[in-house]
Design goal:
Oligomer: single chain
Bound molecules: alpha-D-galactopyranose, zinc ion
Structural class: alpha/beta
Helix content: 25-40%
Strand content: 15-25%
Shape: globular
């Protein structure tokens, strides 16, 4: 765990790119900005190990010394995200092979093959040397292993390691043949050596298309595990030498290649990099925070990076408007972060990040809008002290997110190309978040005991025991909402032969006979005659043809040859209920449904719902954030004190919250 007594404020600092004269000026400016924590050494491998037998820590020593004397805390990176050029020249096994089958050359970053013996050896060796040299620093608060592990490799070493991984999983080649249904298209494997890494030279042919889904899913599992092993190799040696320094690596939210629920078990705390695009809905960013928090079992996390102003890598790199950096920083805190960190301290002069925002801009002084905003936030965070750090959010509602189901639905050949798993999950999270209902994003392994309501859209793949877990949850009074394309397959992507939705059939109280998939311009209607959902609603994408087997029909299709047949059903089961959505309803329908199920299990919002007003409760603090472009009148429902301005509010008091305004309220 990261222990802090105030919100840590800082970010990536790369003084090795600058002269020592500049370091002095950095010291002055960073102090002015209220920066107290720096992440250093992120891309320094080439500097630290200029050749195979030579390590040189003199510059890093000086950097450590300078920032320590300035009173800053250090998050020390292990520098293993880019291997040195000499290593690539001497040991080409370290270079990745792309999905197209091309051997990469030295360059870019995260270009090291995760199964390269050279990479494993030298990355761990470097981590060890760093731990031995800097492990006793009093201001060392965390190890930051590598940087944004990403991508995949298809080289011969990875292929061999994949076969080993498969052997461990399936034990015998016969078991693999059965699980992979390999008699299809004559794929029968005689030996482990017949199995290839499924890239564009064999099973896959363009993004999302593969001849053998399970092989491609297993490869993604394997690749995530391989990168995780690289992390674990370094983490282990760091732990051996510095048992008390927590170890993390910076994650990226809903990132395709890495199953962060699995990774979450091996980091001491979650840290992540938040880069919303200008048009990203605030609730989508909130979902990423919740996902990252969920991967760390709800514990406080670290916002490792965000840009103070612009990025450089989006098609259009809009400035963060005045107040937005502050607003989004508080949003991270509101969702469980104990830090506000930036990429980066000083804007670099060359290469692809020269136009990326930084605390200190190219002009080199403090008289910039961005610097002033950063310094003001720095002051504010000092005043807040430890008002909420270390505390957790508590949610009665949860939304399931599962990488296997993402991979399986995205790689599925049929029924539609329009299923975007994270966006499908988001529709439910969004409906909750817009109502200010606190929700967690949880994984398959997360206990359901503390929740009353669970949304599990596209629960395509049912892993061993999960149907039983869901059924116990509902038996005990929980409400489960699931959708089309659920209960279809087992963890090896073998489709159920006992009628869709397979293991969920009795829980949902229905049988899905067929599923229609239509292009976006062709939609259907959901007609609901009575109750809270009465009305005619639009639905699209997928249309299950349902036979209720105990479930009540709540809405029927309005059109097509299945007009009048059930589209949305509710099944009372034990003390709880299960909702099944056979088609993708519009947002208005979802909003009503969310209200209905929240009422049914007595879930209250943290704060009254209002457009653009986000609220969360962390410990005994309620954060209220105005994402609207205009100032907005809100009603404060309880007596409280705003810690930012030291103002008291009476229950029911009206207040004009400025555009991008923030309240940090303590009740009473
Ligand atoms: C990532 C990386 C940083 C930097 C930023 C730029 O988050 O971790 O090194 O490249 O992106 O946005
Ligand atoms: Zn490889």
């Amino acid at each position: 765990m990261l222990t802090v007594n105030k919100v840590l404020y800082g970010g990536d600092y790369n003084p090795e790119q600058w002269s020592k004269e500049t370091w002095k000026e950095d010291r002055r400016l960073l102090a002015l900005a209220g920066i107290d924590t720096v992440t250093i050494n992120v891309f320094s491998w080439a500097l630290l190990q200029p050749s195979e037998d030579e390590y040189n820590f003199s510059i890093l020593d000086e950097i450590v010394d300078t920032v320590s004397k300035a009173g800053m805390k250090i998050c020390l990176a292990t520098a293993t995200a880019t291997h040195p050029a000499w290593m690539a020249r001497k040991y080409p096994d370290i270079l990745r092979v792309t999905i197209e089958g091309a051997k990469r050359k030295f360059g870019a970053r995260q270009n090291s093959c995760p199964n390269s013996p050279t990479y494993r050896l030298y990355s761990v060796r470097l981590a060890k040397k760093l731990a031995e040299r800097y492990g006793k620093l009093e201001n060392l608060i965390a190890w930051h292993v590598s940087n944004e592990y990403e991508g995949s490799c298809y080289c011969d070493n990875c292929e061999k390691a994949f076969r080993k991984w498969l052997e461990q999983k399936y034990k015998t080649i016969d078991a693999l043949n059965r699980a992979w249904n390999s008699s299809f298209w004559g794929h029968t494997y005689y030996s482990w050596d017949d199995i290839s890494a499924p890239n564009y030279l064999c099973e896959e042919w363009h993004p999302g298309r593969t001849a053998c889904q399970i092989q491609s899913i297993d490869y993604r599992r394997f690749n995530s595990d391989s990168l995780l092993e690289c992390f674990r190799g370094e983490a282990q040696v760091l732990k051996e030498i510095t048992a008390n320094v927590p170890v993390t690596t910076n994650m990226m939210g809903s990132y395709w290649f890495l199953d962060y629920f699995k990774w979450g078990k091996y980091v001491d705390f979650i840290s992540w990099d938040n880069y919303p695009s200008p048009g990203t809905p605030y609730t989508r960013t909130a979902m990423n925070h919740a996902l990252m928090r969920g991967c760390g079992d709800g514990k406080p996390f670290m916002l490792m990076e965000q840009t103070p102003s612009v990025t450089n890598w989006q098609p259009y790199n809009a400035l963060k408007r005045p107040g937005i950096m502050r607003l989004w920083s508080y949003q991270a805190l509101a969702h469980g972060s104990d830090t506000v960190m930036f990429f980066q301290m000083r804007r670099s002069r060359g290469c692809c990040e020269k136009f990326h925002g930084a605390v200190i801009d190219h002009c080199g002084h403090e008289n910039t809008r961005v610097f002033r905003e950063i310094a003001a936030l720095g002051e504010e965070l000092k005043k807040l002290e430890d008002a909420f750090t270390g505390s957790r959010l508590k949610s009665d509602a949860a939304v399931l997110f599962d990488w296997d189901n993402w991979w399986a639905s995205a790689l599925s050949a049929g029924p539609t190309i329009d299923m975007n798993y994270p966006e499908e999950v988001f529709r439910f999270y969004d409906a909750l978040a817009r109502k200010n209902i606190s929700a967690d994003i949880i994984g398959i392994g997360t206990s359901l005991d503390t929740y009353k309501l669970l949304f599990a859209p596209i629960l395509y793949m049912i892993k061993p025991g999960y149907a039983q877990k869901l059924s116990a949850f509902v038996q005990n009074g929980g409400i489960l909402v699931t959708t089309y394309f659920s209960g279809m397959a087992d963890e090896n992507d073998l489709v159920t032969i006992s009628g869709y939705p397979g293991e969920l059939r009795s829980l949902c109280g229905l049988w899905v006979e067929e599923t229609d998939a239509l292009p976006p311009e062709q939609t259907n209607k959901l007609i609901c005659k009575e109750g809270a959902l009465a009305g005619t609603w639009k639905s699209d994408m997928l249309y299950d043809i349902i036979h209720p087997e105990g479930a009540q029909t709540i809405a029927c299709y309005g059109e097509d040859f299945y007009a009048g047949t059930p589209a949305v059903c509710r099944n009372y089961y034990g003390k709880g209920q299960v909702w099944y959505l056979g088609s993708r309803p519009d947002t208005q329908f979802l909003d009503r449904l969310v209200s209905l199920v929240c009422d049914d299990c007595n879930i209250e919002p943290v704060f009254p719902a209002q457009e653009g007003i986000e609220a969360t409760r962390r410990g005994d603090i309620v954060f209220v954030l105005n994402h609207n472009k205009e100032e907005t009148e809100i009603v404060i429902p309880f007596a409280c004190c705003d810690l930012l301005r030291d103002t008291q509010f009476a229950a029911g008091q009206k207040y004009l919250l400025s555009a991008a305004g923030v309240l940090v309220l303590r009740k009473g």
